[in-house]
Structure formats: C-alpha cells, structure tokens
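Fill in residues.
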C-alpha cells in the first residue's frame, strides 16, 4: 500500500515539475521546479526503499532521500523570498552558508561508513524496516534545515498581511501545502499520530501538502500572478484600484478607491459590484466584453456633493482567454471639472462685461456728440481735448 502512495506522490511531483517548467518565466517558478524535483526524489526513493529487501539496498535509497530532505527547506525559503519579491535581502555570504551546511551533511551521510559521525547504528527491525539511530551532529544539521524552513514560513505569513482577496488565498494555500508535512512529522514525533511501518515515513507526510499545492495551482492559479506588498504600492496611489473576480465580486480595493466610493468598513470583500455605488451595468458590460481597455466617465452623488470620475477597465485573462477578473483604475476628475466650469463661467462673465463696457462707451460718445451739436463747434473741440 505504501509503495502505491509513494508512486502517486512521485507522479504528483513530476506533474509539478512539468507545471513549473511551463510557468518558468514567472517569479517563483524556478524554486518551485526545484522543490517539486526534490519532493519527487524523496517519493521515488522511498518507494524503492520499501520494495527492496536487503539492508544495503534500503540504505542506498535512504541516502538518496536525504538529497531531498536536506535541500527542500532551502527551496522553500528560496520560493518564499522569490514569490513575495523579497529575494534581494539575501546576501552572497548567506547563500553560501545555507548551501554549505546541507552539502557538508550530505557528504558526511554518504561517507558515514568510514567515520560514523552521522549515524550510531543502522539495522533492519523484525518487520524488515530500516532503522537508523542518529548522532547529535546529524540532528544539528537537520535542525538547521528546519530553521531555514521556518524562516521561509515567516516570510510567507508576513506577506499574508500585505495582501487581500485571491492573493491572500494563494498565499494561504502555499503556506498550508508546504508546511503541512512538518506539522504531521511533529505530531508523529510526539506520538499524537500513531503510524506504523512505511506509512509513518516522512515521505508519506508530503502527500497532503502536494495535493493542497496542486489544488491551489488549479483553483487559484498560484503562479500566474504573484503577490507583492500592496500597502507599499496600491495605498500610495492617488488613483483608485478596483479588482473584480470573474463573477463581478470585489476582490481588492486600495485606499484611494475606498475613499472615492466611501466604503470605509471591511464589509466590501466579496461584495458584488451591483451592491456598490459604481454604475454596475456599465461596469459588468466592460468587465465581460474582454476588450483590451474600456474607458468611460461617470458621476457619484447629487447636487453640490456630485463627484466626477473616469474609469479604465482592463480584463484579466488566463490562457485561452479565460476570464479571471478585471482591474479597474478610477481617476477623480471632480476638481478638474470644477475648475473647467469656473473658467467657463469666468469667460462668460468677462464677455458680458466687455459687451456692457462697449455699449456704455457708445452711449457716452453719442451723448457727447449730441451736446456738441447743440453748443457749437468750439464746445466740440473742447470736449474732444478733454
């Protein structure tokens, strides 16, 4: 039974490798490729260990598994830093140190028959299962790998607070999928989960995590878009950002959009666009037409409270033009329109003033000429000089 589970896990890992290669241009694809490849090594090597009867053969494939166990935590941290766009924080010295320790551990494992620094005793129990008693050095090296994995967990969990909507669910699926094996291994080590035989191996604990990450890839397109610290970009923008899913429900609003729409509470999430102040019919039409960019003007409020906006709606399409949602950019034109109206009113006022002044001048000139005729030419000259 366990052999079939290992085979299933290996095929899942292989599918993950193929998927990571297909999205290789996306941030996080390369460490995802490495993580799936290392998981596949663990799965297939665990299956071979169970099937082969001899101590030497089992030990050989147990050693092969250590490649995955030692380097998978590094891939987890690499994936977390790349996926959250924080990879620049790694220095060259840190990378060298993180690679040196598991590499040294792997070399010591493969040469353990000469110095026994990693294993105290290796034998087969009555059930034919390989049993290894580890040294303190062995535990320290694998403890370092666990620490690296926890740093990756910290990076991903911290990024959850910077994202919302679909991006947050993407991160949660990634966190649960990658760290569920560690949780199951901890529960097994404390005796809270009682497994016997090869079903208790660490390789089996990777299966639920692989399935969760796979579901996240299919359901939420984990690596078609990557999260980033939204509060450092979106909330600094003067334009409003509105993100809808394929059903027309709100997935994300930045601070400017919430101020424009006067939606200051946290109840806007998953609200349909028809339940917002936005002109829903025009919005949904632009949202579903899948035109590259749709732009139109609209107004919110009445009378003195009326505000003018321009909306630009861009569809978010997956492969084969499958609609994932839309991104809308709102620009507040209220002050611009008010200034334009004020200029028009000023132009009209200036025009009326000019007409009034011209008519007044003509009337005054006519009056002076009439008086000149009455008083004679001399008076005309005097008034003209005056």
């Amino acid at each position: 039974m366990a052999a079939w589970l290992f085979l299933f896990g290996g095929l899942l890992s292989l599918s993950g490798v193929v998927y990571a290669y297909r999205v290789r241009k996306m941030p996080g694809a390369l460490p995802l490729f490495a993580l799936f490849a290392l998981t596949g090594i663990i799965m297939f090597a665990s299956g071979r260990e169970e099937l082969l009867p001899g101590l030497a053969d089992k030990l050989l494939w147990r050693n092969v598994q250590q490649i995955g166990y030692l380097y998978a935590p590094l891939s987890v941290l690499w994936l977390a830093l790349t996926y959250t766009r924080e990879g620049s924080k790694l220095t060259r010295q840190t990378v060298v140190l993180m690679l040196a320790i598991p590499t040294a551990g792997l070399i010591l494992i493969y040469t353990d028959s000469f110095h026994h620094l990693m294993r105290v005793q290796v034998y087969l129990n009555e059930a034919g299962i390989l049993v290894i008693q580890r040294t303190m050095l062995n535990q320290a090296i694998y403890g370092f790998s666990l620490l690296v994995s926890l740093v990756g967990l910290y990076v991903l969990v911290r990024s959850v607070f910077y994202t919302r909507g679909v991006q947050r669910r993407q991160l949660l699926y990634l966190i649960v999928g990658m760290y569920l094996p560690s949780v199951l291994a901890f529960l097994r080590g404390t005796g809270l989960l009682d497994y016997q035989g090869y079903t208790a191996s660490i390789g089996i604990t990777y299966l639920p995590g692989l399935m969760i990450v796979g579901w996240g890839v299919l359901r939420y397109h984990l690596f078609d878009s990557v999260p980033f610290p939204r509060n450092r970009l979106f909330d600094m923008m003067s334009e409003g950002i509105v993100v809808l899913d394929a059903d027309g429900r709100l997935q994300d609003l930045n601070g400017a959009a919430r101020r424009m729409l006067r939606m200051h509470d946290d109840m806007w999430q998953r609200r349909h666009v028809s339940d917002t102040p936005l002109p829903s019919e025009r919005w949904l039409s632009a949202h579903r037409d899948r035109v590259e960019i749709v732009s139109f003007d609209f107004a919110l409020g009445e009378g003195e409270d009326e505000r003018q906006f321009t909306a630009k709606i861009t569809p978010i399409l997956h492969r084969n033009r499958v609609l994932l949602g839309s991104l809308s950019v709102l620009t507040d034109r209220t002050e611009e329109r008010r200034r334009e109206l004020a200029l028009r009113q000023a132009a009209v006022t200036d025009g009326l003033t000019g007409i009034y002044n011209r008519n007044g001048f003509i009337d005054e000139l006519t009056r002076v000429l009439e008086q000149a005729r009455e008083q004679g030419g001399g008076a005309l000259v005097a008034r003209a000089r005056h």
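The chain has a mean pLDDT of 77.
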